[in-house]
Write a structure and sequence with these properties.
The structure is a single chain. The protein has helices at about 5-15, 20-25, 45-60, 65-75, 80-115, 125-130; strands at about 5, 40-45. By secondary structure, the chain is mainly alpha-helical. The longest helix is centred in the last third of the chain and has 33 residues, at about 80-115.
């Protein structure tokens, strides 16, 4: 069995800031860590594994609620993984929608950056377009 680790070591082993670990505890993604007699938090191998899961989920862009749902599903390892698949499929759909929005944004920014006449700031088409909220302002 692994010797308990303190929060600093947990942070180092998982490349997670101490404040983030405390946040995950405060919202219930990580259990409230037991404390030593001097009040220092202690963690074990299951906490390390759980934090790796959370970090990997966040890296993939899953929301805290999606991670919470996935961790809840993991509590019953013999069940069908269809619910996890549904969460991942919905997340993929959300990512694809954001990518489409980013493509529109990229095109607008490309048009804006090409509209620059290098004239005086007072005549800058970029500044005017941003001020009016329309990329083709004053063209």
């Amino acid at each position: 069995m692994m010797k308990p680790v303190m929060i600093g070591q947990l942070a180092s082993e998982t490349s997670t800031k101490v404040t983030t670990i405390r946040f995950y505890e405060s919202i219930g993604l990580l259990r409230s860590a037991p404390r030593t007699a001097s009040g220092r938090r202690t963690y074990d191998a299951s906490d390390i594994a759980r934090l790796h899961f959370i970090r990997n989920g966040r890296r993939l862009g899953f929301s805290v609620d999606e991670i919470r749902s996935l961790m809840g599903l993991a509590q019953n390892p013999d069940q069908d993984c269809g619910a996890a698949s549904a969460i991942a499929a919905q997340h993929l759909k959300d990512v694809e929608e954001r990518l489409a929005q980013l493509a529109v944004l990229r095109d607008e920014l490309a048009m804006l950056s090409q509209s620059c006449t290098k004239a005086r700031m007072a005549d800058c088409r970029i500044m005017k377009a941003i001020g009016k909220g329309h990329p083709q302002a004053d063209q």
